[in-house]
Amino acid sequence: MVRAGLTAERVTIAGAELADEVGLDQVTMSQVARRLGVKDASLYTHVRSLEDLRGRIALLAADEKTIRIAEATAGRAGKDALFAFANSWREYARKHPGRYMATQTPIQIDPELAATAPGPRRAVELTYGMLRGYGLAEPDLTDAVRLLRSTFHGFVALEAAGGFAHKRSPQQSWIRALDALHTLLEHWPPSREGDSS
């Protein structure tokens, strides 16, 4: 158990690793302290509270996930970019379930930390950039971003919970879902702004 060199970053990484093992909602400051071999009070020198720690985990995860997506989609456009983007999203969620959940959970994040964190901002840029490749502009861009996020998150959350019991493999359904999204994005319906239906 290492005590020397404790930093906010080390506390965050320890919390993120624990979240992947036991689930984000099961992480406590006491567990993180035990993992680092320190007393609970030592953590509060580096993070203010459990909520602060969760916010830091969310920012760490957003940065990690965005880096993977950026690497996967570099030089790609259209369907290739969509598939690379989606597969990176799903792979990150599967490998780091606790961290991933932090990016999908409403958490009060320190505004100063959020302002300097590149992950969330880069995620928006990557997503909108990919969708502009389909010729979309506002307000369709925002609607398409919400559709992708709903589809990706819904799929990985159901998959993680064992929600796909049918004999057809989830991978086959995933590919078909991405094919369908690609077709929809290529043939995005005209805006019906002002229509309340």
Which labels suit this protein?
mainly alpha, globular
Architecture overview:
- The chain is an all-alpha fold and 197 residues long.
- The protein has helices at residues 8-22, 29-36, 40-43, 50-73, 78-95, 97-104, 111-116, 118-132, 140-160, 170-186.
- 69% of the residues lie in helices and 0% in strands.
- Helix 1 (8-22) packs across helix 6, helix 5 (78-95) packs across helix 6 (97-104) and helix 8 packs across helix 9.
- The N and C termini lie far apart (60 Å).
- The model has no long low-confidence stretch (mean pLDDT 92).
Distance between the termini: 60 Å
What proportion of the residues is helical, as a percent range?
55-70%
Proportion in β-strands: under 5%
Radius of gyration, taken over Cα atoms and rounded to an integer in Å: 19 Å
Largest sheet: none
